[in-house]
Structures are given as structure tokens and as C-alpha cells.
Amino acid sequence: MGIMDNLKQLGDLKKMRDQAMEVQKKLAGIKITIEHKGVTVVMTADQKVQSISGDMDPNKVTEAVNEALKQSQKVAADEMKGLMGGMGIPGM
Q1: Among 14, 15, 44, 88, which residue's CB has the most CB atoms within a 10 Å radius?
Q2: From the CB of residue 19, how many other CB atoms can be counted at a distance below 10 Å?
Q3: CB-hemisphere CA count at 13 Å for 44?
């Protein structure tokens, strides 16, 4: 491996990092609203809870937050698939 190969790898890594940061910004801007058993949870796709309202029964809140997390994970996975597909990584 010569110096040119090393420089190309560094360039590829920077490109991947930049793309990952763009996806992270995009996820932070996507809001997911879940209404579950009288509880409303608003969460970003990067899994930051924005608000919780409605019935404040701890069990219902827990279920609603878990449902919102599940949805945010699906959105994040879809966004990451687009990123990985654009990188030409085998098996992704």
C-alpha cells in the first residue's frame, strides 16, 4: 500500500463521516408523534424526547415511550440504509 492509497482511504473516511453527520442532523429534525393508551409522546428520530402529555400513569407512559423509541429506530434504520447504500459497502 502506497501513500496514495492511504490518502484515498483518509478521503473515503472523511466522506463517510460527513455523510453520517448529515444523517444525524436529518434525524434530529424528524419528529415522531405516538399516541398510545391516552399518552402522547413526541420524539425526534435521533431518540430525544420532546414532550409527553396525557394520562401520566407510569405504565402507560412507559409503553408510549417504548413505542415511540421503536418508531424512531425504524426511521433511523431507513435513513442509515440510504447512507450505507450510497457508500458501496458490500453486504449493506
Answers
A1: 44
A2: 15
A3: 11
* Cell of residue 29, nine digits: 429534525
pLDDT tens digit sequence for 23-72: 899 999 999 999 999 999 999 999 999 999 999 999 999 999 999 999 99
Cell of residue 8, nine digits? 484515498
- Residue spans of alpha helices (H) in the chain: 3-29, 58-87
CB atoms within 10 A of CB 27: 18
User: In which residue are the cell numbers 402507560 written?
Assistant: 60
* Cell numbers linked to 83: 447512507
What cell does 11 get?
478521503
| Burial (CB count within 10 angstroms: exposed 0-12, middle 13-18, buried 19+), residue 78 | exposed
Report the alpha-carbon distance of residue 90 to residue 79 in Å, rounded.
Answer: 18
Judge whether 64 and 43 are in contact, CB under 8 Å: no
C-alpha 56/C-alpha 60 separation (Å) is 7
